[in-house]
Design a protein that fits this description.
Elements: E1 8-10, E2 18-23, E3 29-34, E4 37-38, H1 44-51, E5 56-58, E6 64-67, H2 70-87, E7 114-116, E8 124-128, H3 140-144, H4 147-152, E9 155-157, E10 164-165, E11 179-181, E12 186-190, E13 203-205, E14 210-214, E15 226-228, E16 233-236, E17 248-250, E18 255-259, E19 277-279, H5 289-297, H6 304-336, H7 341-351, E20 357-358, H8 359-370, E21 379-381, H9 392-397, E22 400-405, E23 409-415, E24 421-428, H10 434-446, E25 457-460, E26 464-470, H11 477-482, H12 492-513, E27 528-530, E28 536-538, H13 563-580, H14 589-600, H15 610-615, H16 619-632, H17 643-659
Parallel strand pairs: 1-6, 8-9, 9-11, 10-12, 11-13, 12-14, 13-15, 14-16, 15-17, 16-18, 18-19
Antiparallel strand pairs: 1-5, 2-3, 2-6, 3-4, 7-8, 20-22, 21-25, 22-23, 23-24, 24-26, 25-26, 27-28
């Protein structure tokens, strides 16, 4: 047959999906396209075997045209049903409640967790079976060895099940996969080397499993932006990732050895902790000669000058430690001469900078302890397994690093001897009795919500108060929006999800604590933190900032009728930050004024973050969320909606978004 000839394959019984084939003189199929998706290369024999005999062949122009036969669709269904049966731990039919059966179409019959292309409604794009009580194995061959599925699948999400066994090497045949999320399962064995050949992969989460052995060289995947592998049993070296543009990265609590990656970006030592064999400047652990060899063995290895640099870091560390000892010694002498705690605090305010190891925190805390008649019971540990057996003395012994300084206190990161990392909020100038403070903290602790961080413990004296929280390594919403990443990877659906979760959590806290008059009091994007599962959480609830001109000795300042409406205003400003990507200048005034002026001039689209516009986010739903934000930041507190109303409005927008999911790749 000449090169200009072509064939049309038509199934007269049940045409389903148009396929376009390209070929050469030798009848080798270079590629074929289905509903805009490029499939793998096929030989003529493979193509005929795939289509089956029930076709009619007709010459037409310079391409092959064909349509799926009914048998091809049945093959896709059979493969999916087999996949779910294996996940269920059976080789028979899967659980009927999932709706995966031969009588219905995967894209039209309500198959649980199956999401198809919304434009053609004919190809399976995502499989979401997280939290589905699955306890079988991952049969990748059922999905990735079937051409239509292998080429159309972009997301596989199986989080929080009980799936065991190995991750099969056949996963590599799902070439267009860009998200593989299998955290919190029972996977074991080595990761397949083929995993590093998934060139379109963007997010890989294998955390909280039992994977072992060395890790494939995932650093070769140029578009990878999320890699989470904490709490496994992985060994060997960490590939030399360039973490500069990563959204999330964590390999903590494995058995890795050698040097950490050179370019760690915004990630700190918490992303690598729990691996005693790791070394590098970020960990304050000088690499040995053998580790230095490992550094040089990286593809983008470190030069001899870099090795000297590591040694220099160690020397600087010793010098810095000496300075701290000298500084502490001088202050102890001053204390012996009768200096008050306020004098120590004033020196602290002048010397301490974010990121420095703070001796002053320990001095101030220990001075307060000395002034207390009940040192052993000063740290009140609430009923939390995280800090069971943890004492006030443990807190004093632990080194503290200043993270943030505020008007009424400072936030420290404290690393305990057992590896536990805590966040300690030190509050000064809060004239509230110890008993009142204790009651307040216990009330807040008793009202639990998964998206609100509860205090683990607290300490109270006349001079200061300390609150202990579990440290959240991924930082704040403010950092995500305005930090080094400038929101580049913070997509619309993620922002909408943050808005919905925080609205629901704040509405819950308002409902439960309104009778006690306890609002958040200082809600802002830096007080929205991301936990280990990247879920947004409200922090520092109930630590209401009191202006100096208020009568801070009165508890009424903490239970103002407008306090809850002020929370609504703060939440509205957070919504504006999510939508615009812009910084708040002074209590949100500049941002809200700017938004109002732009909307008033009917240039609403100019408000939105250009990142969201370029991503193709729904303008209609962004406008709807903007309208909610404007209601929240109304000048008159009485005209602001209650948080439960706000939560309902945002959930409605989110439901509309979920119904019209657009697909990547």
């Amino acid at each position: 047959m000449a090169k200009a000839d072509s064939m049309t394959f038509i199934d007269h019984e049940a045409p389903e999906v148009l396929l376009i084939f390209s070929y050469e003189n030798d009848m080798t199929i270079n590629s074929f396209e289905a509903a805009g998706t490029l499939f793998s290369i096929f030989s003529w024999g493979q193509m005929v075997h795939f289509l089956g005999p029930a076709v009619t062949i007709v010459p037409k122009e310079d391409k092959f045209h064909c349509e799926f036969s009914r048998s091809a669709l049945e093959g896709v269904k059979a493969s999916l049903i087999k996949f779910l049966a294996k996940l269920n731990g059976t080789n028979a039919q899967p659980d009927p409640s999932f709706g995966w059966n031969n009588a219905t179409d995967p894209c039209q019959g309500g198959w649980k967790g199956v999401i198809c292309d919304t434009q053609t409604n004919s190809s399976v794009r995502r499989i979401y079976l997280n939290q589905s009580s699955l306890s079988g194995v991952f049969d990748a061959a059922s999905l990735c060895n079937v051409p239509p599925l292998a080429s159309s699948l972009v997301h596989i999400k199986l989080d929080q099940n009980n799936i065991g066994g190995q991750l099969p090497a056949e996963i590599v045949n799902c070439k267009n996969l860009n998200r593989l999320l299998i955290r919190h399962n029972q996977f074991s064995g080595n990761l397949p080397d083929s995993l590093a050949m998934l060139n379109n992969l963007k997010r890989l989460d294998i955390s909280y499993n039992s994977f072992s052995g060395s890790m494939p060289n995932m650093s070769r995947i140029s578009g990878l932006s999320t890699f989470l592998a904490q709490y496994n049993k992985l060994t060997g070296e960490i590939p030399n990732f360039d973490l500069t543009n990563f959204e999330m990265f964590n390999v903590s609590f494995n058995d890795f050895t050698g040097a950490i990656p050179v370019k760690t970006g915004r990630f700190d030592q918490s992303s690598f902790m729990g691996n005693p064999g790791l070394c590098g400047p970020l960990l304050n652990r000088v690499c040995s000669l053998s580790s230095d060899d490992n550094i040089a063995s990286h593809k983008d290895g470190v030069s001899k000058d870099d090795i000297l640099m590591y040694s220099g870091y160690g020397l600087v560390g010793f010098v810095f430690l000496g300075l701290i000892i000298y500084k502490v010694g001088k202050r102890n002498k001053k204390n012996e001469k009768g200096d008050s705690i306020n004098q120590v605090s004033s020196v602290d305010d002048g010397m301490e900078k974010p990121g420095e190891v703070s001796a002053d925190y320990k001095i101030a805390a220990s001075r307060s302890a000395e002034n207390s008649a009940t040192v052993s019971t000063s740290l009140i540990v609430l009923t939390s397994p995280v800090v069971n057996g943890f004492s006030f003395e443990d807190l004093l012994r632990a080194p503290a690093e200043l993270i943030e300084r505020g008007k009424h206190g400072s936030l420290y990161r404290v690393i305990c001897e057992n590896g536990l990392i805590l966040a300690v909020k030190r509050i000064k100038g809060w004239a509230i009795s110890s008993n009142e403070f204790k009651q307040r903290m216990q009330k807040i602790y008793q009202v639990t919500h998964p998206n609100v961080l509860s205090p683990l413990a607290f300490y109270c004296s006349k001079q200061e108060k300390l609150l202990v929280y579990e440290y959240q390594q991924y930082g704040s919403l403010h950092k995500f929006l305005h930090g080094t990443q400038t929101g580049q990877a913070f997509e619309w659906i993620s922002r909408l999800n943050v808005a919905a979760r925080i609205a629901e959590a704040l509405a819950f806290m308002h409902q439960e604590l309104r009778g006690d008059g306890i609002a958040h009091g200082n809600l802002k994007s830096s007080n929205v933190l991301f936990n280990k599962n990247m879920e947004p959480c409200i922090s520092e609830y109930g630590l209401m900032v009191v202006d100096n001109n208020q009568d801070s000795s009165s508890s009424s300042s903490f239970s103002s009728p407008n306090a809850f409406k002020e929370d609504v205003y703060g939440f509205g400003v957070i919504l504006l930050e999510l939508l615009t990507g812009k910084l708040v200048q002074t209590n949100g005034i500049d941002l809200t004024t700017w938004v109002h002026s732009v909307v008033r001039e009917e240039w609403t689209v100019e408000v939105f973050d250009k990142i969201l516009i370029s991503e193709g986010a729904s303008e209609e739903r962004m406008v709807n969320l903007l309208q909610v934000a404007i209601k929240c930041v109304h000048r008159s507190p009485e005209n602001r909606p209650a948080m439960n109303q706000v939560a309902v409005m945002i959930n409605t927008i989110k439901e509309e978004e979920d119904k019209s999911v657009t697909f990547e790749g």
